[in-house]
TrEMBL record:
PROSITE patterns: LON_N. Residues 3-224 form the Lon N-terminal domain. PANTHER family: ATP-DEPENDENT PROTEASE LA (LON) DOMAIN PROTEIN. This is Lon N-terminal domain-containing protein. The lineage of its organism: Bacteria, Bacillati, Actinomycetota, Actinomycetes, Kitasatosporales. Coiled coil: none annotated.
Amino acid sequence: MTTARLPLFPLNTVLFPGLVLPLNVFEERYRAMMRELLKSPEDEPRRFAVVAIRDGHEVAPSAPGMPDTTARPERGPAAGFGPDPLKAFHGVGCVADAATVRERADGTFEVLATGTTRVRLLSVDASGPFLTAELEELPEEPGDEAGALAEGVLRSFRQYQKRLAGARERSLSTGAELPDDPGVVSYLVAAAMVHDTPTKQRLLQAPDTASRLRDELKLLRSETAFIRSLPSLPAFELTRAPTSLN
């Protein structure tokens, strides 16, 4: 397996390969990371790893009773992640390639990155101005019947999106064209479904494409049946992605 050491950007969300990640970077540890990335030549990839934070982490520590409002906030690259940051993160993440890293006048950054490759988190280093991690690349195997499963997932996803949009009869082609490649389908649908972080994390770390698609098919059928029983829901767009604050 190929290993690498990259800057580590923990988030309260899951990044999938092929998906776009907009970031509004204002914490000093991540600003330091972006300044380091900008030192790379423009013709070289500016890569960092994104991992999802486990539930219950990235919270201000407090003693029993009322919080001490006079206490100085914890600072440093591992602030909020406890004495062993490795335990604060899910074990599988995604490498991000920053196509745009733009520094604002106030020193914050506007970043636009794209997920590329799944990686397993081996170790975390908090000795520098920002977290870095030793990572092992995870190959994406197709698995059995991935093509047929992808077709079924796309059909179910169309029904799911119609239900989210209020069951209006319209084609998904009015929003975004869906791909044919089973791996791309599996990641795109995983990112687009409205689910919590643990569910999305489970999809990211599926052993192969076919396993991910089978899981998605069950989720889509279950969610569509549930949504059908509700009176109304807000519309969700396939390509809508929130800007992540850090």
